[in-house]
Structure formats: structure tokens, C-alpha cells
Design brief:
This protein has 279 residues and is mainly alpha-helical. The chain folds into 2 domains: 98 residues, Arc Repressor Mutant, subunit A (Orthogonal Bundle), CATH 1.10.10; 159 residues. A 3-stranded antiparallel beta sheet has the order 1-3-2. It starts with 10 loop residues before the first helix and ends with a helix. 31% of the residues are buried.
């Protein structure tokens, strides 16, 4: 039983591997079994070489001590995030761990989850290769603060990411007018205005054009763009004012999940506008 070589991968990537392993490990497990499963998964993914002779059916793939230490940190992060808890039905202490009710919901999700920052951002960049850097900055901050249960901060920064996405869209719409006079008039209406006012102007100008748009862009406008923008904006306003309101972790989890199709829709709409200028 030979140890695999050190996993020279970033912490967030190791966390991604760990979450994938936990997804297939049942509701409770021991630390050593997870460590071994992570090692096995790393070998299967080609991250490290199999330390055993060809043809040898190894049952265990122990991690190096440095990687076991990193794995402990990751599991502790998942405990803080309420995905895991120490103990299970029969054992109330370490090294036993079990998945919480919230963790079960998160791990069963087929969509990217914020508890897996590497996997989440990888999916965003795969779906939107030219993602605006400012959107990425605020979205990354939202994920980080969500995972340490700073839910007000996570809500506000997600709202900033959403607002930036709308600004990029509105600027694209302004730049794709055929008529210079109409373009000038549109820009005059939005210059110096708050995002809600800009969006209302944009909404009134684009709605008459939707009948000429492809089916998917036309049908998803109200729910995917309008609906998600308003939802994230309302939550951001609630979090950004000293009302004492408490943000719900499960609701914010859902908002972070829906942000990906929302942002993807915005970029799809921009792609269409760039090749189909309007009046």
C-alpha cells in the first residue's frame, strides 16, 4: 500500500475533488475513508500517477501527510458552511462525519454550487468565456463571503455582480443602434441614472423589438432577465440598508445558482445584438 505523490493542485481544486467524493460517499463516513477516496479519485483523474505496479488491484491510495492536512482544512470549511457536521447517528465525535440536511440539498444539486468555488467559477467561465472582469470580481467575493456565512456581504456583492452585468448589457444595446440620433437619445436618457432607472429605459426600448428576436431570447426575457434582476436587486437593497433583516442561506444559495443562467442569458442577448443592430 503505497502513498500517492503529493497533490500539487490549488486548495480550491482539492476542495472540488473532495466535494465530488463526498457526493458519492453516503450520508456518513470516516476521515480516512474520505482521504483514501480522494487519493483514488485523483489517480483516476490523472492528477497523479498510480504508485502501484501495472495490473496490481490496489484497494487503498493513501495521501501524503501534507495533503491529509489540507483535506482536514477543507472538511472543517465544509463544517463551517453547514454542509457537514462532526459525528453521525452511532458516533458523536471525530473522525466520523455526516452530511447535514442543507448539505444534502447542496450536494444533490445538478447545478454548480457555491460551496465548490472552483467548480462554480469553472462552469461560469465555460458558459461565458468572455465574462467581464468586474462581474467575476464581485461574483467571486460573493461566493467567498457566502462560504463563511457572511450572508449580508454575499448578498450585496452578488447584487453588484448583477448590476454590472446589466450595465454591460445596456451599454451594448446603446452601441448597436443603427440610427445615430436614436442612439444619442437613448444614451441621454440613461446617463447619470441609477441602475433601476437605466433598466426601465432599456426595458421600454427593447420590448418592442423582442418579437423579432429568436424564440429562446424572446421567451426567457421576462423570467430570466427581468425576474432575476429584480429578485437579486431587492435582496441587495434589503441587505444594504440598516433594517436588521437577516438573509436566508438557502435563498441566497438559490440566487447564486440562478445567477449563472441569468448572466448567460445576458451574454446571449449581447451576442445577438452585436450581429443584429437595431433602431
Amino acid at each position: 500500500m503505497q502513498e500517492i505523490t503529493e497533490l500539487k493542485i490549488p486548495y480550491e481544486e482539492l476542495k472540488h475533488l473532495t466535494i465530488e467524493v463526498i457526493r458519492n460517499s453516503g450520508n456518513s463516513f470516516q476521515f480516512k475513508s474520505i482521504a483514501n477516496a480522494v487519493g483514488h479519485f485523483a489517480v483516476n483523474q490523472g492528477i497523479v500517477a498510480n504508485p502501484n505496479q501495472p495490473g496490481f488491484q490496489a484497494l487503498s491510495f493513501p495521501l501524503q501527510q501534507v495533503d491529509e492536512n489540507r483535506l482536514r482544512q477543507i472538511l472543517w470549511d465544509l463544517i463551517i458552511e453547514r454542509v457537514l457536521t462532526i459525528g453521525d447517528y452511532h458516533n458523536d465525535s471525530w473522525p466520523w462525519l455526516s452530511v447535514t440536511d442543507y448539505g444534502r440539498t447542496a450536494l444533490l444539486s445538478t447545478d454548480p454550487i457555491p460551496n465548490d468555488p472552483s467548480g462554480y467559477l469553472e462552469r461560469v467561465k465555460r458558459d461565458i468565456p468572455d465574462l467581464d472582469e468586474i462581474i467575476e470580481t464581485y461574483l467571486s467575493e460573493s461566493i467567498r463571503t457566502y462560504n463563511i456565512n457572511q450572508l449580508l456581504s454575499a448578498t450585496i456583492t452578488l447584487g453588484c455582480a448583477s448590476e454590472r452585468a446589466l450595465i454591460v448589457l445596456i451599454e451594448c444595446f446603446a452601441d448597436t443602434y443603427v440610427d445615430d440620433a436614436k442612439q444619442s437619445g437613448f444614451k441621454k436618457k440613461i446617463t447619470g441614472k441609477f441602475i433601476k432607472s437605466q433598466f426601465d429605459v432599456f426595458d421600454s426600448h427593447i420590448k418592442p423589438l423582442l418579437t423579432h428576436f429568436p424564440y429562446e431570447l424572446r421567451e426567457n426575457y421576462a423570467n430570466t432577465l427581468h425576474g432575476v434582476f429584480q429578485m437579486i436587486r431587492n435582496n441587495r437593497n434589503d441587505a444594504g440598508h440598516p433594517t436588521g433583516i437577516k438573509m436566508d442561506k438557502e435563498a441566497l444559495f438559490a440566487n447564486l445558482q440562478v445567477f449563472i443562467p441569468y448572466c448567460k442569458y445576458i451574454y446571449g442577448l449581447m451576442d445577438y445584438l452585436r450581429t443584429n443592430h437595431h433602431n
